[in-house]
Specification:
With 526 residues, the chain is α/β, with parallel strands linked by helices. The chain has 17 helices and 16 strands. The longest helix is centred in the last third of the chain and has 46 residues. The relative contact order is 0.15.
Amino acid sequence: MISLLELRAPSEDGGILYYPDLSLVAELIKENQKKLSTAQPLIFGQPLKELRLLAKDDAITASIAFLKSNGQEIKVDKSLPLLVSGHQPELFHPGVWIKNFALHSTSKKHSLTPLNLIIDNDVVKHASISVPMIPVVGKKSVQVNCNFDQDNSGMPYEDWMIKNHEIFNRFSEHLKGITANWENIPMGVTFWQDVLKAVAAGLKPGLAFTHARRKWEQHLGCNNLELPVSTLCSTNSFSLFAMDIISKAESFANLFNQAVATYRTKHGLKSKNHPFPDLGVAKGWAETPFWLLLPGESRRQRLGVKKEASGEIILGTPGPQGVRISLGVKDQLAAFKNLEMQGTRVRPRALSTTIFARLLLSDAFIHGIGGAKYDEVTDQMIQNFYQVTPPEFMVVSATARLNLIKNVETVSAVKAANQIARDIWWNPQRHAPAKPDAQWDDLIVHRQKLLQLACNTHSERKERYQKLRANLDCLRVWVKTDYQQEVEKAKHLQGQFKVQQQLQSRDYSFILHSEQKLKSLFKPFL
């Protein structure tokens, strides 16, 4: 089990996290294959071993077709083990992007097939990126939002259409203006031209981001298979996987809720939404780890299942106004597969996406830090629902900072400044003024005598304490100016430190970094 304590983003600029070391991938794959080849579960009537072969063939075939439709040919040896990773088609930070390069490099070294899943079934969270502003003397640093469209939050990437073409087309110009005083030109200025060309060729924005990203990767020699999850959902293997959970929805929900409760207790979480919300079970309905999107709609609904005594399976949402979609009693798999043809889409949520990728699709999976932490729940579900020892996964991430400022204040510098101010206030005798006189000397001598004074009773100790406090107040008068200066200095350093933390965040989009900076970060995999 991966310890949370071990999963921390590197603090140093350019630092890379591997867990375990990528050189161990061959051993990890061998162990995973051993676990999965000897497991005996049936998944909607199909042996796990056979369904894994089908899932692999489905995904590779669909990926080749997807890339070909975008004018890209790639040769694949289907007999090689499959190394998989994935992320939403967004403008993520470099620590996410590095997984793609690790995926390619590791596969090349160990004779694997690399596949990156495009999580286009997830929703668009932002139509902008945050851009830090270099602080001007006397002013606080700020972040500005550089918009590339109007708000599209809540819409899946697979449905995302540009709302405001003027904003989208001028994004590069806007970004260039915001970063005009930067030492290095962000790669987004040129990256966006490839995005615009892809949109002009008919791609939706999410896939246009993917197209531009792949072009840059290929320029550096990185060439992975790519497959949108929305396309994966049309395969036979995914339908079998989904129907297995749907047909056992109540059992899955109960086991999932137990796993989530265990995770919350273990990690002291009080929120009912972390790491995932519970799956509802009530009045004959059981919520599943899937989304339901009705024909012509982009609004996702939680997919519920009701199983009648007759064996009929009903999909939809509970309540008098809920959706009802019957899969009938017989040929339920065919009925489920027909939903997509009729415009009704079933899409996996985060947990089910990861279960499919780790249990059925890959021989090894590469996570980022966040996904790895939450996969404690995934491991429990693979163990308890499928009765399979969970396959091991790998973790890759990195830290890249924009370095917009040269002099970086540290935590220790801020702490030291506060300690100096505190010491002046509570130990003024250690901080003699520039020009002390006889009165200062008298106060110091008097304080030393008080400290040496023997006190045998409570009243004597109380009297000495009161005299020491009076002496302290008198000494503070002499160092008041120095104290106030140090307090202001400490406040200034604290403010500078907060500004620098904002400017030095690792979470800024990769398109804000220079091409040279990114090449340097990815160099170990090139």
